[in-house]
């Protein structure tokens, strides 16, 4: 089936204006206001710098919840006739029509980080992501190892319904349910806003003084969670696990505020995403799913090469 889809794309591209061998690649992420996505940008820059046929643009809304803005960015890229698109969709359904339109316009699309809705199957050529379910399970396993099998664990999530959130938080929760008696409080959704996560965590800590653990499921959420733990005097007394690896989260690990943080290959998403769309434009076969990996970073391994290659 995948080879048929690629063949359809090649046929459409042959009719499209603009050569498949040169032109702009539009990298459109969930927001430009996060260090995680800026690291994706650096990866894309590295891929572009290694060749001379293509340029790229990097764009994204002010916040991850500004889905309509992201839709407009994809539509604008299609309208100006870009050669390829690398997209991290903020909403699995809202972006599907635009991706379909790109396909019909002969523009290959590579999805990164979060999956599109099932209705979009066949309209993009590859999906590059952390295996978010496996990552969520790894964090849950670490939670049980550190916090035990009984008590309350708060889940501080980000945007409900996003593909990465469904896998990451859903599999975290499912693993705890299947392997412990831990009771989940939440999830609460920060809309990927650090200040909101801080306030939500402050409220959760006050309402549940018997918490044994807490999980912040993406960068701004985990940063807000960590700051709330410090302000409440709970740092080190609650097993806190984060996700992503900016400087704030690295310092929380070093200081013992976080037991560990799960760090995705954000640089790899940008670099591999751009290289994959170039491969498609060159008529090469690509895998339909490419795992960009995750590393659980703690005090013991934070200075290792494995951790330093994913931290940002």
From TrEMBL:
Heme is among the record's keywords: no
Key word Ligase present in the record?
no
Q: Which domain of life is it from?
A: Bacteria
Q: Which Pfam families does this entry report, sorted A to Z?
A: Peripla_BP_4 (PF13407)
The signal peptide annotation in the UniProt record is 1-22
Q: Which UniProt keywords are given for this protein, alphabetically ordered? A: Signal
Output one GO MF annotation. carbohydrate binding
Q: What's an example GO cellular component term for this entry?
A: cell envelope
- Enumerate the spans annotated as Periplasmic binding protein domain: 25-285
Q: Where in the cell is it found?
A: Cell envelope
Major localisation? other
What does the similarity note say? Belongs to the bacterial solute-binding protein 2 family.
Indicate what this protein is called per its UniProt record.
Answer: D-allose-binding periplasmic protein
Origin organism of this chain?
Palleronia marisminoris
Q: Which lineage?
A: Bacteria, Pseudomonadati, Pseudomonadota, Alphaproteobacteria, Rhodobacterales
The gene behind this protein is alsB
């Amino acid at each position: 089936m995948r080879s048929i889809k690629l063949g359809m794309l090649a046929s459409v591209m042959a009719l499209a204006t603009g050569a498949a061998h040169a032109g702009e690649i539009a990298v459109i992420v969930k927001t430009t206001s996060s260090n995680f996505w800026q690291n994706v940008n650096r990866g894309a820059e590295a891929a572009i710098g290694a060749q001379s046929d293509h340029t790229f643009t990097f764009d994204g809304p002010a916040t991850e919840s500004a889905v309509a803005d992201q839709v407009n960015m994809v539509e604008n890229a299609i309208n100006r006739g870009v050669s390829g698109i690398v997209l991290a969709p903020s909403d699995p359904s809202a972006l599907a029509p635009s991706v379909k339109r790109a396909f019909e316009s002969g523009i290959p699309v590579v999805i990164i980080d979060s999956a599109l809705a099932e209705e979009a199957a066949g309209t993009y050529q590859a999906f590059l992501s952390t295996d978010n379910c496996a990552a969520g399970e790894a964090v849950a396993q670490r939670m049980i190892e550190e916090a035990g099998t009984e008590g309350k664990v708060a889940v501080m999530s980000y945007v409900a319904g996003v593909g990465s959130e469904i896998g990451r938080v859903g599999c975290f929760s499912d693993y705890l349910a299947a392997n412990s008696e831990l009771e989940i409080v939440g999830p609460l959704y920060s809309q990927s806003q650090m200040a909101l996560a801080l306030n939500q965590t402050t409220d959760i800590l006050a309402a549940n003084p018997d918490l044994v653990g807490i999980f912040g499921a993406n960068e701004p959420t985990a940063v807000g969670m960590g700051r709330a733990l410090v302000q409440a005097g709970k740092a080190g007394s609650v097993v806190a696990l984060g996700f992503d690896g900016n400087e704030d989260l690295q310092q929380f690990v070093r200081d013992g505020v976080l037991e560990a943080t799960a760090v995705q290959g954000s640089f790899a998403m940008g670099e591999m995403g751009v290289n994959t769309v170039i491969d498609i434009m060159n008529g090469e076969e690509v895998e339909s799913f490419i795992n960009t990996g995750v590393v659980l970073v703690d005090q013991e391994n934070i200075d290792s090469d494995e951790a330093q290659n994913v931290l940002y």
